[in-house]
Design brief:
By secondary structure, the protein is an alpha/beta fold. The protein has 3 domains: 221 residues, Rossmann fold (3-Layer(aba) Sandwich); 275 residues, Rossmann fold (3-Layer(aba) Sandwich), CATH 3.40.50.1110; 94 residues, Sandwich (Immunoglobulin-like), CATH 2.60.40. Helices cover 32% and strands 22% of the residues. The protein is built from 21 helices and 28 strands. α20 links the parallel β17 and β18. α15 packs across α21 and α19 packs parallel to α20. The longest helix has 27 residues. It is globular, with a radius of gyration of 31 Å. The N and C termini lie far apart (112 Å). The relative contact order is 0.07.
C-alpha cells in the first residue's frame, strides 16, 4: 500500500511538472498579429519596406509579447471579382495559416479602380464579411479591426473621374462591415488627411506616414491615447459663450471614465474606442464671476481657472486683420485705456511670417507637421498684449463689451498675405465642381494670385521636398488654425481678407460662399454670423469690381454683413492705419443684427434698386436717413450709362428722402448707375451717422444684385 502511494505521488508530481511547463510554454507564446492589406500595408514606395512599413513599426511599439507579420500585397482588391482579389494571393493563404489572434484589415483602395467598384459594389460588404468569417474559422477567438482607408489625394490621375466619390462610398461600406461583423473600426483616414506632403504619388504614404499609421493602430489595439488631454483652446482665463450649450471635448485612454465639473454642474462619460470623449454643459448666463472647470479620468486631473461667461468671436483674415493696435492711428491712447475693457484675448501668432525671406529647415519641417502657430493661452487684456493684438478685433470687442456690459473673448487667427482658399477645408474644395482644381500644384496654378504663388515659392525655396507645405497652400490655414478651434462655441466671425484674391473676382465669389459654408459646417451652425470688411481704397485697378462683388455677397448670404472701409483707404498703402472706425463699424453690425440693437444704424446708405424717371435714374437706399456728403462738398463719383454700357459722370445729383436722382447730359436714356467706381475713390456719400455708402453698380428694373 505504501509503495503504491509513493508511485502515485511520483506520477502526480510529474504530471504537475508537465502542466507547469506546458503553462509556461503557453504563456511564453506571443500574441499573433496579422496586418492584412494592400500596398499601403506592404510599404510600397519605401526604400526598405521591411524596416519602415507600418507593421514593422507596430511590432516595435507592441514589444516582445507580440508577433506581428506583414501580409500586405500590392494592388490587391477586397472584391472577390476585382481585378486582383486579395483572397487569391499567397499573402491571404499565409495569413490564414498564421491563425492570428488579432487581425488588422486595410483593404479597399484598389477597389476604387473603374474595373471594380462600378461593377461589383454590391458584393463589397458580403465579400468583406466572408473574409472575416474565414479568419474566425481558423481562430474563433480572433479579434478583428477593420480600417477606414487612408486618403487618396487630388493628385491621383483618376481623382475627379470617380476615385474621389467611390473612395467615400467604400468608406461608408467599411463602417457598415464593422457594425455587421462586430469588429472594431480604426480610422486611418483622418490622421493622414491633412498630410498630403507624405504622399508623393497621392496614394501611398511614405515612411513618416507609415509611422503615423503604426501609432494609430497601436492606440486602437491597446487603448493607449496618451492620457487625459484637452484641445489647446481650452485654457485658464477663457471666455465661454453665453446662452449656448458649452461643448467640452478631449482625448484620453479608451474606456476611462471622465468626470467634469463646471460651476455647479457635473457630467460624466466614458472614453470611446478611438480615444475621444465629449460633454455638453447647459447654457450659462453672462457673468464676471470666475468659474473653475475640473476634468478627471480617475488617474489625471486638469483644472482650468478664472473662466468667464460672455460673448466669443473669431477674428480672422489676412494682414489687415493681423495689423496690430500699436501700428494704428492714435495707438498710445487706445493702448493706455485697453486694460479698462472687459476683454480676454486668444492670439494665434505664426511661428514664421510670410515676409520676403527664405525659411530655414526647422521652420520648413514644422510647417509640414502642421505646427505653424506659437503655443498660446487665453489672457486677460493688458496694455502689453493689447498693443500686439489685432487693432480691428480690439476695437470691435471693446465696442461690444461697452455696449453689452458682459465679458468678450476674442480669438485672433490672421496671416498676412493669405488667400481665402488657404482658410477653406479640404473636403469642401475636393468636392466642389469649380474649386477642386485649385488644389493642383498651387505654386503654378493661375487660379492662385501670382503674388501669392511667388511669395510662397520664395519662402520655401530651401526645401528639398517637392510637396513642402506653406501657409498660402489651399487648406493649410484651415488645417492648422481653424480645425483645432472647430466646435468651441462662438457667437460669430469677423473677417478681413480679399487683397490676395482680387485678381479673379468671379472665382472669389465662389470661394467666399464656400468658405462661409465650410466654417458654418465646422461649427454645426448654419446661421453663425459672418461679418466682413470690404476691401479698402487703393490704386489697384481690379478693386472697384471686387468691392461691388463683396457687397453683393453680403446681400446674398444670410447672416452675413459688410463694413465699408473705402473712405479710410490709402492710395499707396494696402494697410491703412485708421482701424478704429472699421472695428466699430463691425461692432455696429453685430449689435444691430445679432444683439437686437434695432435703433442703432448698422451701416451707411445701401442701394436697393433703380428705376427710370424721364431722362434720369432714381436710386433707392436703405439706411438713408440724412444722406449728405461727408465733407460738405457736392456728392461725387456718381456715374450713369446708357444701353451701350459707357459711363459718364452724373452732372445732377439730387437727394430726395431715401432716393438719389441722377442725370447726365451725355446719357438720354440711362440704364444703369454706379458709385465709387475708382480704385482709390474719394466718394463721399454718408448718412446722418457719418457712415459711408459702398461702391456699387445697379441696373434699372433690378435690385442691387
Amino acid at each position: 500500500m505504501t509503495s503504491i502511494t509513493t508511485h502515485m505521488k511520483r506520477r502526480l508530481f510529474l504530471t504537475l511538472c508537465s502542466l507547469f511547463f506546458v503553462c509556461v510554454a503557453f504563456a511564453s507564446e506571443p500574441i499573433r498579429v496579422a496586418c492584412i492589406g494592400n500596398s499601403v500595408t506592404y510599404g510600397y514606395g519605401h526604400q526598405s519596406p521591411a524596416q519602415t512599413s507600418y507593421p514593422t513599426r507596430l511590432a516595435a511599439m507592441l514589444g516582445e509579447g507580440y508577433e506581428v507579420r506583414n501580409f500586405g500585397h500590392s494592388g490587391a482588391t477586397l472584391l472577390y471579382r476585382g481585378h486582383r482579389p486579395y483572397i487569391q494571393q499567397q499573402a491571404w493563404r499565409d495569413a490564414l495559416a498564421f491563425a492570428p489572434d488579432k487581425a488588422i484589415i486595410h483593404l479597399g483602395l484598389n477597389d476604387t479602380d473603374p474595373r471594380n467598384w462600378p461593377n461589383y459594389r454590391d458584393e463589397f460588404i458580403p465579400n468583406y464579411l466572408a473574409m472575416i468569417d474565414s479568419l474566425r474559422a481558423v481562430n474563433p477567438d480572433v479579434e478583428v479591426w477593420v480600417c477606414r482607408m487612408t486618403p487618396i489625394f487630388h493628385g491621383h490621375r483618376r481623382f475627379k473621374s470617380g476615385t474621389r466619390d467611390w473612395h467615400a462610398q467604400i468608406q461608408q461600406a467599411i463602417e457598415e462591415v464593422a457594425l455587421l461583423a462586430g469588429a472594431h473600426l480604426i480610422d486611418l483616414h483622418e490622421p493622414l488627411y491633412h498630410r498630403p506632403d507624405l504622399f508623393a504619388d497621392a496614394l501611398h504614404p511614405d515612411a513618416e506616414g507609415a509611422m503615423i499609421l503604426a501609432q494609430t493602430v497601436f492606440s486602437a489595439m491597446t487603448g493607449n491615447y496618451g492620457g487625459l488631454a484637452l484641445p489647446a483652446i481650452y485654457t485658464d482665463h477663457m471666455v465661454i459663450q453665453r446662452d449656448k450649450p458649452f461643448l467640452l471635448r478631449g482625448t484620453a485612454d479608451a474606456g476611462r471614465k471622465i468626470s467634469a465639473r463646471l460651476g455647479k454642474e457635473k457630467l460624466r462619460t466614458t472614453v470611446a474606442e478611438d480615444g475621444t470623449w465629449q460633454l455638453t454643459f447647459k447654457p450659462l448666463a453672462a457673468s464676471d464671476k470666475s468659474l473653475t472647470l475640473t476634468v478627471t479620468d480617475g488617474e489625471s486631473t486638469l483644472t482650468l481657472t478664472d473662466i468667464l461667461v460672455g460673448e466669443v468671436w473669431l477674428c480672422s483674415g489676412q494682414s489687415n486683420m493681423a495689423f496690430m493696435l500699436r501700428q494704428a492711428t492714435d495707438a498710445q491712447k487706445h493702448i493706455a485705456e485697453a486694460a479698462t475693457k472687459n476683454l480676454r484675448l486668444y492670439d494665434m501668432r505664426p511661428r514664421v511670417y510670410t515676409d520676403a525671406v527664405a525659411w530655414d529647415s526647422a521652420s520648413l519641417a514644422a510647417l509640414n507637421k502642421l505646427d505653424y502657430y506659437v503655443p498660446t493661452t487665453w489672457q486677460p487684456i493688458t496694455e502689453q498684449n493689447a498693443s500686439q493684438f489685432s487693432a480691428i478685433a480690439y476695437h470691435f470687442g471693446a465696442m461690444l463689451a461697452d455696449s453689452l456690459g458682459v465679458p468678450v473673448g476674442l480669438i485672433c487667427n490672421a496671416v498676412g498675405g493669405a488667400p481665402i482658399e488657404s482658410f477653406t477645408d479640404r473636403h469642401t474644395l475636393e468636392h466642389h465642381p469649380v474649386l477642386v482644381d485649385i488644389l493642383t500644384d498651387w505654386k503654378r496654378n493661375d487660379r492662385v494670385q501670382d503674388w501669392v504663388r511667388g511669395r510662397g515659392a520664395y519662402n520655401i525655396q530651401l526645401s528639398k521636398n517637392p510637396l513642402q507645405r506653406h501657409p498660402y497652400e489651399p487648406c493649410f490655414l484651415y488645417e492648422t488654425g481653424i480645425a483645432p478651434l472647430a466646435g468651441f462655441p462662438l457667437r460669430g466671425v469677423i473677417w478681413y481678407q480679399g487683397e490676395s484674391n482680387a485678381h479673379n473676382v468671379e472665382l472669389f465669389e465662389t470661394e467666399f460662399e464656400a468658405l462661409v459654408g465650410s466654417w458654418r459646417k465646422a461649427w454645426d451652425d448654419e446661421e453663425m454670423p459672418f461679418h466682413f470688411v470690404q476691401l479698402s481704397s487703393i490704386a489697384r485697378p481690379s478693386w472697384p469690381h471686387f468691392r461691388d462683388v463683396q457687397r453683393q455677397l453680403a446681400d446674398a448670404i444670410s447672416h452675413c454683413e459688410m463694413a465699408v472701409s473705402s473712405d479710410k483707404g490709402d492710395s499707396l498703402d494696402v494697410h491703412p492705419r485708421e482701424k478704429r472706425p472699421i472695428g466699430e463699424r463691425l461692432g455696429r453690425i453685430a449689435l444691430h443684427h445679432d444683439y437686437g440693437f434695432s435703433r442703432l444704424t448698422p451701416s451707411g446708405p445701401s442701394v436697393q434698386g433703380a428705376h427710370a424717371e424721364g431722362n434720369g435714374i432714381v436710386l433707392t437706399f436703405a439706411h438713408a436717413e440724412g444722406m449728405t456728403s461727408s465733407d460738405g462738398q457736392p456728392l461725387r463719383t456718381f456715374e450713369v450709362a446708357g444701353e451701350h454700357g459707357i459711363y459718364y459722370p452724373a452732372d445732377k445729383v439730387i437727394v430726395k428722402g431715401n432716393t438719389i436722382i441722377l442725370k447726365s447730359k451725355q446719357v438720354s436714356r440711362p440704364t444703369r448707375a454706379r458709385y465709387g467706381w475708382q480704385p482709390f475713390t474719394r466718394a463721399n456719400l454718408v448718412n446722418s451717422n457719418g457712415l459711408p455708402a459702398s461702391t456699387f453698380e445697379v441696373n434699372i428694373g433690378k435690385d442691387s444684385d
